[in-house]
Amino acid sequence: MLRAIDISMHQPSIDLGKTDCDIVIMKATEGVGYTDPKLPQHHAGALAAGKPAGFYHFATGKAGAAAEADAFAAAVAGKTGVLFLDWEAGAVSKGPAYAKAWLDRVLAKTGRAPLIYMSESVTSAWDWSKVAPAYPLWLANYGTNKQQGWSEAPVRAPKHWGAAGTLIWQYTSKGRISGYSGNLDLNRVYLTAGQWAARAGGAAPAPSPTPAPPTPSPAAPVFPLPAGSYFGPKSGPAASVSGYYSHREDLRGWQQRMKDRGWSIAADGLYGPETQRVAVAFQKEKGLSPDGLIGVKTWAAAWTAPIT
């Protein structure tokens, strides 16, 4: 998976060379007659940082789908990037037919099939059966919308698109990542760099003339607890080691490894609700029994399982 941020004039001073992300999606236009004033700066910043771009149009539904599409196509002409229709707020009441007319026209004018952005509630409130087969989804679903960093968010399966048609998930608007001091929208992109480039109208990265052999997964440190024991709640049985009385540095090592993998977790060496939550989500992702307890398999997977 790739990691994307989406920005607009509300992030006027962001340094994209320092910001920890793989992809930059930026606002291009809104309605008709408005181009984001920071579009040139953000586009230049992404190019300078060597980060692939995406461009979105915030639909208003006021000027007609064709006029809105033409305004967007003109703004992104000559720019390489994945294209998006931002379908929220007042535009939603125009329904899928308006959105499809915009998508079809942008495809015809640019040769690139856009994605459509919407909240999960909108995917189920309207009949998108004529849109979903041709135009993948950029899904917005924040859950509790807590402040967090990059996470290995598993893809959701919203109505009409399902998991296969959902290529991006915006999972928080309170993202905190290195290189930027404020909140950012954080997105998980379920594409490879080559797949993104193909949708962006650019070439996929050239392969190395002599591919290096695959790097083996690092060996996991030896599980530090006696047979039958595990890291778990302080209130658990004798086999449950919480870090409060022993093995705090060992548990801290597992937490730090999960943090290095992109999970939002404090490496404090203590087993609490946050560690349990991360353990359960990680176990589900890796096909392990999702009990939230860190035994031999969950311990080892933190080092040996591929980062997805």
Number of helices: 8
**Level of helix content?**
25-40%
- Described by its quaternary structure, the protein is single chain
Q: What is the CA-atom radius of gyration, in angstroms?
A: 22 Å
Mean pLDDT: 92
CATH superfamily of the largest domain: Glycosidases
Instruction: Give the beta-strand count.
Output: 11
The gross shape turns out to be elongated
Instruction: Using the coordinates shown, work out and report the CATH topology of the largest domain.
Output: TIM Barrel
What strand order characterises the main sheet? 1-2-4-5-6-7-8-9
The class by helix and strand makeup works out as alpha/beta
Tell me the strand percentage band: 15-25%
**N- and C-termini, Cα separation:** 6 Å
Could you explain the architecture of this structure?
With 308 residues, the chain is of the alpha/beta class. It folds into 2 domains: 199 residues, TIM Barrel (Alpha-Beta Barrel); 75 residues, PGBD-like superfamily/PGBD (Muramoyl-pentapeptide Carboxypeptidase, domain 1). Helix content is 29%, strand content 18%. The chain has an 8-stranded mixed beta barrel, surrounded by 4 helices. The chain has a two-stranded parallel ribbon with strand order 10-11. Helix 3 links the parallel strand 5 and strand 6. The longest helix has 16 residues. About 5% of the residues have low confidence.
